[in-house]
Task: inverse folding
């Protein structure tokens, strides 16, 4: 891995509680921190010099946790996923921690209200949906630097209440917990915080200690909003295990116009193909603002830095070619080479030929041979656009959806034979999006 002699500036914390120490360093010794620094991933790090020394001496193990609050991760999670990607690429071992236990509580960080409590079945279903995306970024196995995936419910749900309090509660003070932004800001806004949520930071700290004990994991990574929780884990691990432990966070990421990363007018930019088609995913990156092209290439692709510097320097209409390369590379990371190529070809044909653009094709169960089995328009719309029946019905009532070129009446019923003959499917349109629903 090539080392760059860049002069970078970042927070380096000899003590996890100290957030004011800032130094200049010419470069790191380890490939891992050099790559993260050059690509813009580093915001805060506890005792970065010691971590750099450890990482340069041989493989280290690091982890990031993902709560199962939805059935797919979205583009806002990509920075953290790429941290694990580069951790492994530079010869280290990543751990993907599924939050089967912490999801039962819900992370209160910078939330005004408590997250909805999910059932065990919902959490498991969400975890099943989330797991698949990591296969696109990481190599899993039993080797020294192969990734592993673990579930914190395996140890958190095994603690008795008194045991948990006696083992870990004595290492946290209410005084200090109240100073963390995740708590302080909620209270300043006079929004209630339940005792259940207040325990989240203890549970996350216990995760780090457990992974350190079992897998010799020395590094927890996350977004800047997780700094307080990560510091707690570092301190608890050092205190109880008497072993090295470090934390690293990434900057808060927004677009050049100030929009939140991973969100669009249409909703979240999901990573799973069944939640957002590869074509729509490709288009999200193709529509990147000019000022963000270089930054997004650094963070969300594995393109070489020399190539990124060349592309981000393009001006005028040429920057659009750089955006296509960004969209290709970002889509390839998640959906693979074939899906990225298909998405680009589809976009090119639609632009040049003015053809109808089909963003997705979905299948809908239909009793085989039952010509007069009926489907409501809201059922078709819900299937096509991944909506609830309630939202689909509302969109139809507001004339936002067309089926086979017409706005359907709310009481309309569709027979299987009413498919568009050319497509052998129902053609549903919502805004600029067209989806084919094939009865099977």
Result:
């Amino acid at each position: 891995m090539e080392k760059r002699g860049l002069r970078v500036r970042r927070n380096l914390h000899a003590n996890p509680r100290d957030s004011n120490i800032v130094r200049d360093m010419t470069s790191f010794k380890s490939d891992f921190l050099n790559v993260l620094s050059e690509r813009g991933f580093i915001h805060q790090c506890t005792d970065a010099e010691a971590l750099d020394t450890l990482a340069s001496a041989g493989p280290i193990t690091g982890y990031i946790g993902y709560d199962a609050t939805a059935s797919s991760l979205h583009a806002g999670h990509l920075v953290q996923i790429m941290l694990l990607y580069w951790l492994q690429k530079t010869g280290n071992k990543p751990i993907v921690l599924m939050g089967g236990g912490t999801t039962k509580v819900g992370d209160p960080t910078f939330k005004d209200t408590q997250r909805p409590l999910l059932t065990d079945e919902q959490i498991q279903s969400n975890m099943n949906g989330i797991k698949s995306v990591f296969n696109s970024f990481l190599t899993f196995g039993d080797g020294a630097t192969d990734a592993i995936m673990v579930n914190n419910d395996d140890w958190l749900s095994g603690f008795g209440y008194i045991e948990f309090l006696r083992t870990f509660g004595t290492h946290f003070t209410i005084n200090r917990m109240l100073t963390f932004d995740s708590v302080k800001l909620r209270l300043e806004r006079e929004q209630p915080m339940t005792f259940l949520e207040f325990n989240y930071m203890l549970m996350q700290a216990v995760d780090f200690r457990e992974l350190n004990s079992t897998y010799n994991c020395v590094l927890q990574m996350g977004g800047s909003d997780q700094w307080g929780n990560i510091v707690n884990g570092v301190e608890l691990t050092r205190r109880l295990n008497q072993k090295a432990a470090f934390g690293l966070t990434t900057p808060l990421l927004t677009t050049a116009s100030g929009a939140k990363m991973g969100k669009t007018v249409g909703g979240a930019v999901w990573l799973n193909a069944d939640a957002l088609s590869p074509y729509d995913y490709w288009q999200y990156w193709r529509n990147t603002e000019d000022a963000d092209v270089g930054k997004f290439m650094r963070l969300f692709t594995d393109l070489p830095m020399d190539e990124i510097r060349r592309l981000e320097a393009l001006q005028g209409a040429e920057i659009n070619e750089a955006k296509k390369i960004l969209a290709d590379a970002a889509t390839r990371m998640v959906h693979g080479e074939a899906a990225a190529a298909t998405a680009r070809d589809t976009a090119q044909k639609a632009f040049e030929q003015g053809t109808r653009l089909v963003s997705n094709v979905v299948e809908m169960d239909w009793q085989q041979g039952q010509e007069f089995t009926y489907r409501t328009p809201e059922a078709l719309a819900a299937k096509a656009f991944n909506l609830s029946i309630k939202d689909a019905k509302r969109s139809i009532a507001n004339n936002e959806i067309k089926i086979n070129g017409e706005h359907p009446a709310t009481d309309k019923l569709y027979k299987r034979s009413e498919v568009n003959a050319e497509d052998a499917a129902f053609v549903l349109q919502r805004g600029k999006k067209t989806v084919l629903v094939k009865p099977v």
User: Anything to note?
Assistant: The domain at 360-439 is CATH 3.10.290.10 (Structural Genomics Hypothetical 15.5 Kd Protein In mrcA-pckA Intergenic Region; Chain A). Confidence is low (pLDDT under 50) at residues 1-14, 16-26. The chain has three domains: 8-250, 277-353, 360-439.
